[in-house]
Each structure stands twice: as C-alpha cells, then as structure tokens.
Amino acid sequence: MVFKVGGDIDAYCTKCRLDTIHVVVALKPGNEGPKRVECKSCGGQHMYHAPKLPSRTEAPSQPAVVNRSAAARNPPPPKPPKAAKPAAAKAAALSAPAGAGAREWLRRMEDLAHQGGTPIRPYSMRETFAAGDPVSHPKFGKGVVLEVIEAKKCAILFEEGRKVLAMGGA
Ligand SMILES: [Zn+2]
C-alpha cells in the first residue's frame, strides 16, 4: 500500500478512542507508512496508530442481523450421532402440552420475529413500557408487554406466564 500526505487512512484516534478516518500529515522516511495523522472526526493530530479493528475496506461489513439469520439457515454441520436431535427436540417442545400462557407467549414471540426490527429492550423498573413492547428480563427471559395496568405497573407475558412488574419507578 502506498501512502501519501493528504490521503485518507483508517487509524486509531487517541482522542476519540475509536478507529476513525484520518488524513496523513507526515510520512515515515522511505514511504514505510504514515507517521503523523489528523483525525477527520475531532481534528486532532497525533502519531499514526494502526486501527484496532480490521480495516473497513478489507472486510465489507454486512448488517449483523443478516449474518445471524444466514447462520441460522446454514448451521454448521452437526456432529453425526446427534444429527437429528436438535430439530426433533424443538418439535417436541412445540407440540408438547403447554399452558395457554406459554402457547400465547410463543405466538407473540413469533409475531415479533415476523415484524422484525422491533428492538428488544432490557426490562428495568426505571423504564416505561407500552403494550406490545418486546422486553428481555434477566430472570424470566424474553417477553412482551401485554398491557399497562397503571402508570407504574405493567403486565408482561414471559414464557413461564404473565407477570405484573413495576415500571417507570425511581
Ligand atoms: Zn479523533
């Protein structure tokens, strides 16, 4: 790679504490690489530091969601003896007798998955939620807000059932 003064380069900015685009200000002798760079983000000049993360130009980034769903569609080859087990176990779980709450929970989770893009917010009693909001709870896992009972109370459906939790508190 040939570097030139005035050219753009990805570098680690010591002020932004991030990889940002920099302009090369000075080169090392013999064009060995950039010596001094200016951050396009904060305008600060500093010694060149290699980016902490792989260069954006080398690895065209795909949205993480796409990567995840691609991975889900093409799981790594399962170990031979247990090849059919995971799917069978899942099917059994789906058809197993479950409480109405669990079935409803599953349906709501599928609905949310189909809607896509609705961010799941971590449950906190300091947050305020609205009916239909997907939440994740450290103990109960993923759930969806069924209704707001009163200003500081909401009912959330988790896999193990409906829970009334505080919200909007101090
Ligand atoms: Zn900077």
Write up this protein.
- Residues 74-83 have a biased composition (Pro residues).
- Residues 50-95 are annotated as: Disordered.
- The chain is elongated, with a radius of gyration of 25 Å.
- The protein has helices spanning 64-73, 85-95, 100-115; strands at residues 8-13, 18-27, 34-39, 45-47, 121-122, 134-137, 141-150, 153-158, 161-166.
- Strand 1 and strand 2 form a beta hairpin.
- The chain folds into two domains: 1-58, SH3 type barrels (Roll); 100-166, no CATH class.
- The model has no long low-confidence stretch (mean pLDDT 81).
- It has 170 residues and is of the alpha+beta class.
- The strands form two sheets. A five-stranded mixed beta sheet has the order 5-6-7-8-9.
- It has three helices and nine strands, in the order E-E-E-E-H-H-H-E-E-E-E-E.
- The structure holds zinc ion (ZN).
- Zinc ion (ZN) is lined by residues 13, 15-16, 20, 39, 41-42, 44.
Care to give the gist of this entry?
With 170 residues, this protein is of the alpha+beta class. Helices cover 22% and strands 31% of the residues. It has 3 helices and 9 strands; from the N terminus they run ββββαααβββββ.
Q: Give a short account of the largest sheet.
A: 5 strands, mixed
Strand residue content: 25-35%
- Shape estimate: elongated
Instruction: Please tell me how large the radius of gyration is.
Output: 25 Å
Would you list the SSEs in sequence order as H and E?
A: EEEEHHHEEEEE
Mean pLDDT: 81
Bound molecules: zinc ion
User: Numbering strands along the chain, what is their spatial order in the largest sheet?
Assistant: 5-6-7-8-9
Judged by helices, strands and strand pairing, the structural class is alpha+beta
Into how many domains do the coordinates divide? 2
How many helical elements? 3
End-to-end Cα distance: 55 Å
Question: Uncertain segments of ≥5 residues (pLDDT<50)?
Answer: none
**Helix percentage range:** 10-25%
* Number of distinct beta strands: 9
